[in-house]
């Protein structure tokens, strides 16, 4: 065997020192979930800085010829016994006092201590070189290798950069109004206690406006508790921006809210502003919960949380293939729950996990950025069982304790970074909607599987919409592709209406002991609301050439292999405040949708003529611009909706007010052109009329490279104002609109060309009987999709299993009535 010094000298040109901007993967294997703590540690290529577990480093060497790797292993140090140990074997967890993660007083994030061993390994003979060995080698070798080793170890790993180690929800900015806040000399003096809302006499959640001293109640919370919005209404009437929450004032500060900036803020002149109204900040004591404490309480709300997580019973931990937990990377439970369910679907297993060796062999030089590789890596990690092991307890001897609920599990950092890259929401560490992530991921699968097996076909189905003109009785049929059935929740059909009314009456009377009653909605009522005809009051009929009423009926034109049902729990209250419906629905284990099969045009049924409505014009003058109610548009924009969508909502509802416009928005949010600019009928610009010359050739080429024809790409870009990302989303959601447009030979993949036949027109959908059985459901705890927690229950070998991030246990009482997303598989006749 050659001398190790000579070998190092021969590969010295391949050893690099990390520069600023280099991505160093030293905490996670690019092709598996091996880490420095895993058996065998991790090998970091000293040229590309990609990390590989012991089972893949040899494959990387054989493929690239790279020989020098930095081998990093970490061994967990035993933790010192906590002096506050309760004697139960585990120290008591401190109750969080700050809305923060990884910060003293915040939600706990365990920080492990490790001993680290680092050395250079030369393949293929696995010769080892330690830092001490380098001292005996030539200066040029010692300096270059030492710099590379220290550079790799000093660099922030990619996973560390992506993971937010600390998050503080209490970091507040100084209000722009604080320094020069106008305060009225109106003689108002506020007593040190005994405050009541000046409008409704409420005694809790009381705020004082710092401009005029008005004492009013705060906002109504998502669940109906809190105040009656009188402080907010006062700001809307006067424009006075800052208010302080009475009861939170102490010598250290208080809760100050800026209505204009729509956030909790700091007021550096708060003592002066309070003294103006006779309040001595130094003598005040806290008597009310701060907004932070209220948020923590909401995020730990007993009731829904305990039931969904089954925390009232001792659950048996499970380990083995298909029973692998996933670490929460900071509000990534929505991703964990969705991916756990998807990899129980045979299509995803066969596409990614069964072909993992082939996928890895064909992976590009940087597999961390390859969608197929990272999905396969995740799927194999979940199904193989290699990471489904009890998490070690540093305080115990190895093997001395019973298996704990938490697992070693996998941390999907590379996967999360890849699927979220460039997305305004999924690239962050904020909580997200599991349904939106599911559709986002399916969209990515669609983009990456055009030339091969497409597992998203398992969920794809056709919807038939039938519109019947009530005046002429002529019909119009359209079809669209969908992946999720959105099931409405008819609250007026609750089976326990009297009980709900009684609880509401007691709350209104101020009875603090009034129980929280959950509405019980029959599943049959939800299905009836889905299938019943919808009345359209402003339908333009081509048969009578005028606006009239019509009915719209929605049916299944095909039944997918796997059916996803979303319970539409998230809605808006009468005050347009978003809220979550607290409901229990008796979702069945088996489902027969055969009665909702579309029938198509019936014998003797006449179709509406294919005639476009006339343009909006006066007899002499073409309407150049819509006349819109600016105040309604502004109110909608303040709710967070896109400007163009708000303009369209006001236009298409004829300036009839906020309620009608909001209803239009809620029923059109899923439209692919929801945010597209408003274009009047008969105008000469807008979607569909953009001249080809104005379209980006680069955008056209990108879409053509995905297997579409130039005509199809042009149509997509015209429909979305030449925005590439929206055009790609549009084209995948309008596959049925492209039926008559042939895929060009230049845009077709090599695999399709070799097949010697054109791809089938339109979207490929599977069809079969409409009978299903429930195999999984995802539940949400919390007041909105932007906060709270997700868990999933999956049926494995006739046993329900709960997947709660790293905890995987046998489910004793699966709360099937509280789910958000339900997953059914087809049952053969």
From TrEMBL:
<feature type="binding site">
    <location>
        <position position="200"/>
    </location>
    <ligand>
        <name>Zn(2+)</name>
    </ligand>
</feature>
<feature type="active site" description="Proton acceptor">
    <location>
        <position position="789"/>
    </location>
</feature>
<dbReference type="Pfam" id="PF00443">
    <property type="entry name" value="UCH"/>
</dbReference>
<dbReference type="InterPro" id="IPR038765">
    <property type="entry name" value="Papain-like_cys_pep_sf"/>
</dbReference>
<feature type="binding site">
    <location>
        <position position="217"/>
    </location>
    <ligand>
        <name>Zn(2+)</name>
    </ligand>
</feature>
<dbReference type="Pfam" id="PF02148">
    <property type="entry name" value="zf-UBP"/>
</dbReference>
<keyword id="KW-0833">Ubl conjugation pathway</keyword>
<dbReference type="Pfam" id="PF17807">
    <property type="entry name" value="zf-UBP_var"/>
</dbReference>
<feature type="binding site">
    <location>
        <position position="230"/>
    </location>
    <ligand>
        <name>Zn(2+)</name>
    </ligand>
</feature>
<feature type="domain" description="USP">
    <location>
        <begin position="324"/>
        <end position="827"/>
    </location>
</feature>
<dbReference type="InterPro" id="IPR001607">
    <property type="entry name" value="Znf_UBP"/>
</dbReference>
<feature type="binding site">
    <location>
        <position position="262"/>
    </location>
    <ligand>
        <name>substrate</name>
    </ligand>
</feature>
<feature type="domain" description="UBA">
    <location>
        <begin position="627"/>
        <end position="668"/>
    </location>
</feature>
<feature type="binding site">
    <location>
        <position position="259"/>
    </location>
    <ligand>
        <name>substrate</name>
    </ligand>
</feature>
<dbReference type="InterPro" id="IPR050185">
    <property type="entry name" value="Ub_carboxyl-term_hydrolase"/>
</dbReference>
<feature type="domain" description="UBP-type">
    <location>
        <begin position="173"/>
        <end position="281"/>
    </location>
</feature>
<dbReference type="InterPro" id="IPR015940">
    <property type="entry name" value="UBA"/>
</dbReference>
<feature type="binding site">
    <location>
        <begin position="219"/>
        <end position="222"/>
    </location>
    <ligand>
        <name>substrate</name>
    </ligand>
</feature>
<dbReference type="Pfam" id="PF00627">
    <property type="entry name" value="UBA"/>
</dbReference>
<dbReference type="GO" id="GO:0004843">
    <property type="term" value="F:cysteine-type deubiquitinase activity"/>
</dbReference>
<keyword id="KW-0645">Protease</keyword>
<dbReference type="GO" id="GO:0008270">
    <property type="term" value="F:zinc ion binding"/>
</dbReference>
<comment type="similarity">
    <text>Belongs to the peptidase C19 family.</text>
</comment>
<keyword id="KW-0788">Thiol protease</keyword>
<keyword id="KW-0862">Zinc</keyword>
<feature type="region of interest" description="Disordered">
    <location>
        <begin position="744"/>
        <end position="766"/>
    </location>
</feature>
<feature type="region of interest" description="Disordered">
    <location>
        <begin position="75"/>
        <end position="98"/>
    </location>
</feature>
<dbReference type="InterPro" id="IPR041432">
    <property type="entry name" value="UBP13_Znf-UBP_var"/>
</dbReference>
<dbReference type="InterPro" id="IPR001394">
    <property type="entry name" value="Peptidase_C19_UCH"/>
</dbReference>
<protein>
    <recommendedName>
        <fullName>Ubiquitin carboxyl-terminal hydrolase</fullName>
        <ecNumber>3.4.19.12</ecNumber>
    </recommendedName>
</protein>
<keyword id="KW-0378">Hydrolase</keyword>
<dbReference type="InterPro" id="IPR013083">
    <property type="entry name" value="Znf_RING/FYVE/PHD"/>
</dbReference>
<dbReference type="InterPro" id="IPR009060">
    <property type="entry name" value="UBA-like_sf"/>
</dbReference>
<dbReference type="GO" id="GO:0006508">
    <property type="term" value="P:proteolysis"/>
</dbReference>
<keyword id="KW-0863">Zinc-finger</keyword>
<dbReference type="InterPro" id="IPR028889">
    <property type="entry name" value="USP"/>
</dbReference>
<feature type="binding site">
    <location>
        <position position="207"/>
    </location>
    <ligand>
        <name>substrate</name>
    </ligand>
</feature>
<keyword id="KW-0677">Repeat</keyword>
<feature type="binding site">
    <location>
        <position position="197"/>
    </location>
    <ligand>
        <name>Zn(2+)</name>
    </ligand>
</feature>
<feature type="active site" description="Nucleophile">
    <location>
        <position position="333"/>
    </location>
</feature>
<dbReference type="InterPro" id="IPR018200">
    <property type="entry name" value="USP_CS"/>
</dbReference>
<keyword id="KW-0479">Metal-binding</keyword>
């Amino acid at each position: 065997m050659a001398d190790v010094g000579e070998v190092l000298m021969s590969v010295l040109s391949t050893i690099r020192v990390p520069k600023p901007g280099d991505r160093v993967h030293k905490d996670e294997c690019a092709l598996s979930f091996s880490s420095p703590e895993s058996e065998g540690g991790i090998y970091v290529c000293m040229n590309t800085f990609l990390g590989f577990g012991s089972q893949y480093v040899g494959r990387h060497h054989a493929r690239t010829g790279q020989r020098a790797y930095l081998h990093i292993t970490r061994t967990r140090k035993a933790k010192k016994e906590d002096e506050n140990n309760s004697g139960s074997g585990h120290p008591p967890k401190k109750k969080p006092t700050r809305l923060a993660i990884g910060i003293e007083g915040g939600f706990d994030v365990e920080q492990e201590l490790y001993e680290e061993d680092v050395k250079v390994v030369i393949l293929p003979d696995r010769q080892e070189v330690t830092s001490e060995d380098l001292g005996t080698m030539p200066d040029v070798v010692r300096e270059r290798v030492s710099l590379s080793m220290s550079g790799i170890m000093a660099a922030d790993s990619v996973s560390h950069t992506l993971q937010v180690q600390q998050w503080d929800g209490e970091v507040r900015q100084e209000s722009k109004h604080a320094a020069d806040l106008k305060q009225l000399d109106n003689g108002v003096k506020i007593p040190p206690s005994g405050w009541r809302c000046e409008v409704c006499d409420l005694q809790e959640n009381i705020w004082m406006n710092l401009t005029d001293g008005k004492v009013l109640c705060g906002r109504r919370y998502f669940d109906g508790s809190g105040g009656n919005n009188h402080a907010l209404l006062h700001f809307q009437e006067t424009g006075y921006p800052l208010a302080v929450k009475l009861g939170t004032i102490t010598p250290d500060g208080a809760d100050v809210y800026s209505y204009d900036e729509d956030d909790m803020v700091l007021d550096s002149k708060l003592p002066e502003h309070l003294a103006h109204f006779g309040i001595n900040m130094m003598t005040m004591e806290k008597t009310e919960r701060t907004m932070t404490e209220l948020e923590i309480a909401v995020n730990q709300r007993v009731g829904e949380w305990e039931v969904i997580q089954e925390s009232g019973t001792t659950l048996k931990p499970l380990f083995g293939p298909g029973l692998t937990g996933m670490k929460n990377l900071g509000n990534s439970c929505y991703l964990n729950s969705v991916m756990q369910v998807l990899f129980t679907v045979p299509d995803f297993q066969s596409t990614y996990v069964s072909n993992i060796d082939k996928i890895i062999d064909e992976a590009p030089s940087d597999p961390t950025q390859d969608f197929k590789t990272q999905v396969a890596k995740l799927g194999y990690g979940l199904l193989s069982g290699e990471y489904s092991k009890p998490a070690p307890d540093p305080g115990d001897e190895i093997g001395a304790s019973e298996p704990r609920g938490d697992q070693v599990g996998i941390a999907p950092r590379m996967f999360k970074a890849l699927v979220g890259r460039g997305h305004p929401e999924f690239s962050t560490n904020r909580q997200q909607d599991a349904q939106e992530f599911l559709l986002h991921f399916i969209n990515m699968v669609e983009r990456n599987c055009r030339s091969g097996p497409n597992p998203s076909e398992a969920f794809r189905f056709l919807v038939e919409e039938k519109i019947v003109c009530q005046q002429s009785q002529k019909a119009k049929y359209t079809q669209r592709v969908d992946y999720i059935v959105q099931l409405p929740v008819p609250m007026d059909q609750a089976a326990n209406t009297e009980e709900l009314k009684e609880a509401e009456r007691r709350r209104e009377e101020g009875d603090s002991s009034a129980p929280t009653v959950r509405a019980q909605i029959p599943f049959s009522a939800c299905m009836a609301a889905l299938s019943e005809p919808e009345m359209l009051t402003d339908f333009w009929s081509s048969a009578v050439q005028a606006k009239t009423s019509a009915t719209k009926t929605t049916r299944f034109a095909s039944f997918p292999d796997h059916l996803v049902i979303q319970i539409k729990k998230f809605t808006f209250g009468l005050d347009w405040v978003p809220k979550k419906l607290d409901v229990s629905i008796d979702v069945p284990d088996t489902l027969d949708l055969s009665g909702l099969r579309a029938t198509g045009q019936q014998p003797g049924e006449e179709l509406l003529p294919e005639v476009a409505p006339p343009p909006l014009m006066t007899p002499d003058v073409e309407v150049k611009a819509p006349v819109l109610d600016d105040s309604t548009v502004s109110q909608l924009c303040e709710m967070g909706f896109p400007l163009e969508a708000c303009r369209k909502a006001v236009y298409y509802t004829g300036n009839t007010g906020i309620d009608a416009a909001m209803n239009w928005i809620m029923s059109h949010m899923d439209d692919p052109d929801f945010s597209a600019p408003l274009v009047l009928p008969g105008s000469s610009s807008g979607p569909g009329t953009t001249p080809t010359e104005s379209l980006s050739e680069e955008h056209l080429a990108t879409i053509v490279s995905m297997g579409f024809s130039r005509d199809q790409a042009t149509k997509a870009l015209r429909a979305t104002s030449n925005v590439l990302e929206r055009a790609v989303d549009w084209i995948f959601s309008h596959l049925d609109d492209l039926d008559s447009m042939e895929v060009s030979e230049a845009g077709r993949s090599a695999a399709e060309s070799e097949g010697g036949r054109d791809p089938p027109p339109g979207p490929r959908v599977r069809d079969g009987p409409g009978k299903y059985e429930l195999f999984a459901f995802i539940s949400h705890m919390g007041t909105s999709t932007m906060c709270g927690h997700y868990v999933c229950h999956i049926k494995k070998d006739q046993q329900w299993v709960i997947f709660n991030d790293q905890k995987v246990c046998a489910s004793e009482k699966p709360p099937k009535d509280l789910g958000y997303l339900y997953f059914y598989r087809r049952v053969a006749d």
